[in-house]
Structures are given as C-alpha cells and as structure tokens.
C-alpha cells in the first residue's frame, strides 16, 4: 500500500492550534492506515490504496474544513517524491555550508507559471536565493529570517498560489524515516 505525506498549511500557526493526536484521529476517520504525525507543524504520514493525489488532497481539505472550521490547504507527496526532494541540491553543495544558512522547501499544488517563477527570481539577493523545481520552491536563506524582505505570504502572492513551507531538515528527517517503507 503506498505511503504518502500530507503537508498541511495553517496548522499550529496564526492561532490555529491542532493537537497531533486529534489530527491523527481525523485522518483515521478518513479510512487512512498507519497514520502518523511528524512534529507539530502539520505533517501527516499515512497509507492508502488511492493513487490520485489530487482527489486525496480535496478529500482531506474538505474533511479538515468541516471539522476544524477553516481552510487547510493540503499538499501530498509520495515517499519516493519526498526522497527525491530531500536529495535535490538546487544551490549546489555549498548551499548550506555557512553559519545561519537555512533551506526552506515550499510545497505547492502545481508548478507555477513561468512568469511567476521569473518574478520570484527578482527576490534573489546576497542573503537569499530562490528557485522552483516542479511543484516545490526552494528558498535558501543566509541570515535570520527576520532580515528578509520576503515572507511566506509574499511568496504565495508572487507565485499566485498557496504554498506551505518546511525547513529542509524536516524533509530530510521524513525521507530518512520512511525511505524503506
């Protein structure tokens, strides 16, 4: 049975607090198997025989809106996709060698249009670099996040679509934990 990771937007940020045991229960009610959460930022791992990730995303979004009372954009990736995302080095090996450098990975439902990707490039500076690969945006930040002119909201506005960001360390840990699943 395929294993998937659901990255949920607006979980435990902006006043939307959801306990992980409650989130697991909601996914189990949707008939998913082997449901686990990974840290308290809206990462849910589960098994299902379903193959259509778009349908899965909609099913989860509808259920979470009904149960939580607000929209929760959901972005699903298979475990092999997570492994590929974790291995990708869009900024080369030197991308994370400096003190305070952090790589964020933003998950989106679709690849943004070329014009949006080009507009995103205008945010590249000595402090940060951005690039889009398929349905992910990679954001290398070389200083404290508070020193950036770019925010998650501005990133979404520039791309013209919703996204949810995760630290690359989280993606690396998920990939390592479930790679043999």
Which terms summarize this structure?
4-stranded antiparallel β-sheet, Alpha-Beta Plaits, 6 helices, 34% helix, globular, 181 residues, 2 domains, alpha+beta
Quote the distance from N terminus to C terminus.
10 Å
In total, how many domains does the architecture comprise?
2
Number of strands: 8
Number of helices: 6
Q: Report strand order across the widest sheet.
A: 2-3-1-4
CATH class of the largest domain: Alpha Beta
* CATH fold name of the largest domain: Alpha-Beta Plaits
Helix/strand order, N-terminal first: EHEEHEHEHEEHEH
Strand content: 15-25%
Low-confidence sequence ranges: none
Instruction: Provide the residue-averaged pLDDT.
Output: 90
Which sheet architecture does the biggest sheet show? Answer: 4 strands, antiparallel
- CATH architecture descriptor text of the largest domain: 2-Layer Sandwich
What coarse outline follows from CA principal-axis ratios? globular
> What is the rounded Rg?
16 Å
**Secondary structure: helix percent:** 25-40%
Structural class: alpha+beta
């Amino acid at each position: 049975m395929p294993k998937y990771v659901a990255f949920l937007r607006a979980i435990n940020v902006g006043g939307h607090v959801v306990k992980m045991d409650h989130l697991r229960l909601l996914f189990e009610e949707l008939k998913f198997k082997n449901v686990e959460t990974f840290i308290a930022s809206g990462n849910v791992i589960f098994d299902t025989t379903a193959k259509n990730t778009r349908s899965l995303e909609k099913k989860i979004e509808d259920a979470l809106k009904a149960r939580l009372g607000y929209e929760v954009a959901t972005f699903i990736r298979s475990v092999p996709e997570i492994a590929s995302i974790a291995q990708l080095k869009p900024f080369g090996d030197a991308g994370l060698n400096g003190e305070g450098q952090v790589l964020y990975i933003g998950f989106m439902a679709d690849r943004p249009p070329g014009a949006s990707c080009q507009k995103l490039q205008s945010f590249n500076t000595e402090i940060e670099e951005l690039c889009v690969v398929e349905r992910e945006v990679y954001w290398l930040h070389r200083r404290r996040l508070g020193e950036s002119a770019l925010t998650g909201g501005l990133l979404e506005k520039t791309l013209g679509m919703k996204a949810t960001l995760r630290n690359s360390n989280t993606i690396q840990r998920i990939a390592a934990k479930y790679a043999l699943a």
